[in-house]
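Example record

The entry below shows one chain as it appears in the dataset: sequence first, then structure tokens.
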Amino acid sequence: MKIIAAADLHLGRRSTGLAGDAEILASKHAWLRLVQWAIDNRVDAVTLSGDVIDQDNAFFESIGPLQLGFERLGQAGIEVFLVSGNHDYKVLPSLMGDQYGHVHLLGKNGQWERWAFIRKGETVEFLGWSYPGPGPYVTTSPISLLSAMSLDVSHPVIGLLHADLDNINSKYCPVGQQELVGLGVGTWILGHIHKPGEWRLPGTSIYYPGSTQALSAKEPGKHGFLLISIDGGQVEIARISLSTVRYQELEIDITGANTREELWPIVMETILADARIMLPEMDGVKLLSYDLRLVGEHADDALVLKWADDSRREMAVPVGTGTTISVRSVVSAIRPPVGDLAELARQPSPAGALASMILAIRQERATPLLTALEEQWEQRRRQLRISGVYQPLLGTAVLDNKPDSAREYLLAEANRLLNQLLSQTQKAN
């Protein structure tokens, strides 16, 4: 038995921050490619773990491609099992009429539901829970409601849920990893987080397929779906790339580039070398979009950024078959070419304070100024997370809260400011 497990189609949305063919950037294009892949590869079932449609206001743009996909899957004898999420909890129930006997919305009204699916001598039990409404928020875990349900664990059980894993303060169905252990569910397929992920725990595995189409530069890397193969009750899972867009982050050392003519060959050679490594997994990718982070030493990082920005606007380079490279953004982490940063750090001046902070970040130690700035960073980050303006975005975007995020930003800013101070000093002299 072969099953496609996907999530977060967000029909009605497009890959953001990019110029190009609207059809290539649209999430509906990825959905119809998934449908065709399922038909061509004789898949038995497709599961969708919520946020199939982006928003109510995307209904009319989404309904045609969604219904077309359902109809084509039905004609091929492929069953569909899905649950709703925080974006489509109102829309999906209204679509599930008698016209789609092969499409099953599990867990309506916030009640867990199971469905035994038999095909090719194999049996799998799908278990699902859907957002009940009336609003888009679910602040408590629904896992406790499973205690009264008896699962048949003599065959594989696959759980479908739209949830925010290990985020207890989330308004979007917070669920802990340990809650999903010991329930008899061998495989959990979660929606909500667009970046693919997986966790192997005793007796169960948890997967985020991620969004089928890469929708944001905050979600770099491969996007597509999971292919679940069941043979003799044994479950194997592989990732299949499908997105027509791939966002990629790349760091480039520009040391030694003293003119625009010297800079761009360095940038291009580094990008092309990175792209060629990925070529074997780029089938179907039409646009490879890079976010560049320039590192190394230069006396004027603002000038280097201008060179890079002027050049990137002219860039549209084909690589492989049918893939075009573009540069979406360029940021600087360029260091000032200071001969002895330690000597400068001993000076009682703004430049000395910046040099001292740069050294502290590089050496992974603290200074009073660095500690104060990191505390301000964390305070602002917390304020942003609870901000009413930011709340609608939490369902589709994750605020960067990596431990090193503050220091990465502060290092880049300190380098930029020190460059400016030293440049001003040189001009004054």
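Notes for this example: The chain has three domains: 2-241, 245-334, 336-429. The first strand starts at residue 2 and ends at 6.
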